[in-house]
Amino acid sequence: MSARSLFKNATIRKKMMLLFLIATIVPIAASIAISYHETRSSITKEAITKNNRLLSLGSANIVNYMNNINQKSLAVYNSMNVPRSLYYLLEHNLEDESFPNGISDVIENRNLLKDHLYNIYQSMKEFYKIRLYVAAQNTSYLLWNDDIKVGKHEPNTIAMAPKTYIEPTHISHNYGLPIKSPVEEEPVFSLHRPIFLAPSDKQLAELTIDVKTSVLSDLNSQLYDAGNENFYVVDQSGALILSSKPDYVGQRLDDGWFRTAAGAGAEQGHFKWDHDGFKGMIFYQQVSTPYMNWFLIKQTPDSHLYAAANKTAWLNMWVGAAFLGVAVIATLIISFRFTKPLLALIGYVNKIDSGNLGVQIDIQSNDEIGLLAKRFRSMMQTINNLILKEYRLELANKTIQLKALQAQVNPHFLYNALQSVGTVALQQGNKEVYGLVTSLGKMMRYQMNMADAEVTLSQELDYVQAYLDLQKERFDKSLDVILMIDERTRDIRMPKMIVQPLVENFFKHGFSPSERPAQLVIASSLGEDGSLTIVVSDNGCGMPAEKLAGLNAAIQEEDRPDGAVGSDNGIGLRNILSRLRLSFGPDASLSVQQLHPHGFSVTLHIPHAKEEKEA
């Protein structure tokens, strides 16, 4: 039997237990997995940003320091043409017997040279030794602390570099001079600067400055965690300048991760590495100047990088296990508790299904099952009421339809009678009476056409014009009607009998022919968003402010019965707004305003208006 069949045939209690366990285990497991993944991802991004920033700072510090050393080495060229300057001594061969006057001058020149070298030596506390090799004499001058040693070399044993460069870390030595060091030598890196006879390329000498590697340790100590991460300063050939592993100093790196970093061709970067006994992230930063090309490389093991994430994951697992135990116990209790009222409710449902809609559901508990039973009782009462209401509504609709059919007889009779009157008036030559009868006929035909619930604005305006023709005759033509209709709006469709009630309100509430010449303005415009705006305004007596505010409030009342606002016998303003919103949605609006010094205005706003061809 398949698992699906087993689940399908299981009892409600077993299904609830299984589903509750799944609903508990899956979210907890998913939460732990997602949390762990997101934590690792966040830690990785943060580590990349942090280490890139740190290595950039370390690179800037090293470049500044090395440029300072390089600048100190250029002191040889200070005051080139001044006698007794270091460059002047080198240019004129300080120990050439023809230059000084005697052996005393040679000693004086040596002391002077010592002073120059000592000034360079004292300029930075990290300088360990300074050696000046003079090519013309094949002689080296070595300054250490406050003592200077001089020694000649074998011919053709010293090769001077053509340009300034940095020699990788090595144990300090005496450059072939027979000097016994009183203390143990220490690791240094050296800057070698050739000294040329300006402006030619002839080399006069070579200045070498030994610098303690401890300065690099101090500069980079804040860039890594010494107990958990590895840090290297390496030149482009793989020679170690500085290493967090002291035994590595002086060696040459040939590991795959170094070749990957050096061959990336990028100034800064990072990559994952899982070879050669290391698994984690490797960050690198190139340190480049005209006289050196180094790399700062930092190894961060995954065990250190994700220590916090792993700790959080284990904590989540223990919490999840505790929740799971609580969930199992709660599942057993809930499943037993829910089974009994659920079975009772199923029994009531079966009775309703058999046709007993009036069954009394007797479940009195206050938990969710009890609430469900109460809602079910309420639902059955609502269904019974709706069935009764639908039955009554159907009867009412039949009655209304019958009355509507009966009511069509009288309008047709009146319309035919008006045609007869118009014919007689035309035969008698009374064109004015014929025009009035024609206008009245148009109005009746417009109202009797029940097939079209919607008409175009142009059709509605024709109906309004017929109504105004009758009103002009009634008030002895003392009425000025102005139509300002945007031609783009004439084909827009709208519910029937929208504009005419607004015009009718003017004659019922605002028109006073004895006071001033009456003026009625009907305007329409089309907005950029396709909305239609219709404004009906007049210069009538208007409305007091308090009454106007009450009218605006009454128009916006959702539950106000149709026809309660506006004329007593016509279609009220609220009725107009309700029909607009039924056709165009809740954004349709109607507002009334008092005009100054006198007059009244009604504005209709119809959103998303459609032309006749679109409708």
TrEMBL record:
Compartments in which it is found: Cell membrane
Pfam annotation, one family: HAMP
GO molecular function, one term: phosphorelay sensor kinase activity
GO cellular component: plasma membrane
This protein's UniProt keywords: ATP-binding, Cell membrane, Kinase, Membrane, Nucleotide-binding, Phosphoprotein, Transferase, Transmembrane, Transmembrane helix, Two-component regulatory system
PROSITE patterns: HAMP
Membrane topology: Multi-pass membrane protein
Keyword Cell membrane recorded: yes
Positions of the HAMP domain: 336-388
Domain of life: Bacteria
SMART domains: HAMP
Annotated transmembrane regions: 313-336
UniProt entry tagged with the keyword Membrane: yes
Gene3D superfamilies: HAMP domain in histidine kinase, Histidine kinase-like ATPase, C-terminal domain, PAS domain
InterPro entries per the UniProt record, alphabetical: Bact_2-comp_sensor_kinase (IPR050640), HAMP_dom (IPR003660), HATPase_C_sf (IPR036890), HATPase_dom (IPR003594), Sig_transdc_His_kin_internal (IPR010559)
PANTHER family the record matches: SENSOR HISTIDINE KINASE YPDA, SENSOR PROTEIN KINASE HPTS
Protein name, UniProt field: HAMP domain-containing protein
Taxonomic source organism: Paenibacillus sacheonensis
Organism ancestry: Bacteria, Bacillati, Bacillota, Bacilli, Bacillales
